[in-house]
């Protein structure tokens, strides 16, 4: 049995290598084939790195947004709107290029971008994730209506690949979205909170966990992560950390 599994893994790796050679994966920013440097396929082109800068300067201790005022440890949003989650972490600054790439990932079926972004999340945040020592990684769920329309949940792709790379348990059934909420781009913070009331339900599996990582694509105000954390805490006083590709400016 073990020999059979090993042979299957070798075969799958070989086939994946052939696909990589003849159909090289695209850079999620420029859509051109990702270059190979020192025998390794790069996640993002060197030129495109300038269009997708990492968050490197001082950032909010709570939500991870870059700080303009370095005299404070928290951003204006987090000071004015206290959160119930432990913290949230992001990798990229919010730029037009990153925004466009995430949009294509979600709405133009660029599922392959998910593996790239998951790899970037692990590359930049693994040390912090290990310090948190999570029991499980879960995706922010989408409604059945949106799944039917889109065909997949982008957060699931991110979370599943992260869990695999980090060898951390993955549970896509822990959190359910039971309410098809309206898009929140133009809603105020108060209306975002109302929009998410009773939007999520948690399975009884939650009692197994003490530390949970919740994965999504973009953090804006934290309303979604707060709503999920509140629902999780109804069953157990656990710690929740959010992981996202990039963080927006909020209000």
| Major sheet details | 4 strands, parallel
- DSSP strand tally: 8
Structural class label: alpha/beta
Rounded mean pLDDT is 87
Order of H and E elements: HEEHHEHHEHHEHEEHE
> How much of the residues is beta strand, in percent?
15-25%
Radius of gyration: 19 Å
Helix content: 40-55%
Short synopsis of the structure:
By secondary structure, this protein is of the alpha/beta class. The protein has 9 helices and 8 strands. A hairpin with a 2-residue loop joins strand 1 and strand 2.
Features:
4-stranded parallel β-sheet; two-stranded antiparallel ribbon; 251 residues; alpha/beta
Characterise this structure.
There is one protein chain. With 251 residues, this protein is α/β, with parallel strands linked by helices. It contains 9 helices and 8 strands. The strands form 3 sheets. It has a 4-stranded parallel beta sheet with strand order 3-8-7-4. A two-stranded antiparallel sheet has the order 1-2. Helix 9 (223-233) links the parallel strand 7 (211-219) and strand 8 (239-247). Helix 5 (112-132) crosses helix 7 (154-166). The longest helix is centred in the N-terminal third of the chain and has 21 residues, at 2-22. The relative contact order is 0.15. Mean pLDDT is 87; it is low at 8-19.
């Amino acid at each position: 049995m073990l020999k059979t599994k090993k042979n299957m893994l070798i075969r799958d790796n070989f086939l994946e290598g052939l696909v990589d050679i003849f159909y090289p994966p695209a850079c999620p920013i420029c859509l051109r084939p990702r270059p190979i440097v020192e025998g390794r396929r790069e996640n993002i082109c060197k030129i495109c790195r300038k269009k997708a800068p990492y968050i490197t300067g001082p950032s909010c201790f709570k939500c991870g947004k870059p700080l303009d005022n370095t005299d404070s440890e928290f951003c204006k949003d987090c000071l004015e709107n206290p959160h119930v989650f432990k913290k949230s972490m992001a990798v990229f600054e919010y730029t037009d290029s990153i925004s466009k790439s995430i949009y294509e990932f979600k709405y133009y079926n660029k599922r392959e971008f998910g593996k790239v972004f998951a790899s970037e999340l692990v590359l930049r945040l693994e040390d912090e994730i290990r310090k948190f020592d999570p029991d499980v990684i879960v995706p922010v769920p989408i409604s059945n209506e949106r799944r039917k329309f889109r065909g997949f949940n982008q957060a699931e792709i991110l979370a599943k690949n992260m869990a695999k790379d980090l060898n951390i348990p993955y549970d896509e059934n822990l959190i359910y979205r039971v309410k098809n909420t309206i898009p929140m781009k133009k809603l105020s913070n108060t209306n975002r909170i109302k929009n998410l009331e009773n939007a999520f339900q948690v399975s009884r599996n939650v009692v197994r966990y003490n530390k949970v990582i919740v994965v999504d694509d973009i953090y804006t105000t934290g309303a979604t992560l707060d709503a999920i954390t509140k629902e999780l805490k109804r069953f157990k006083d656990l710690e929740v950390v959010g992981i996202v590709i990039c963080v927006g400016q909020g209000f």
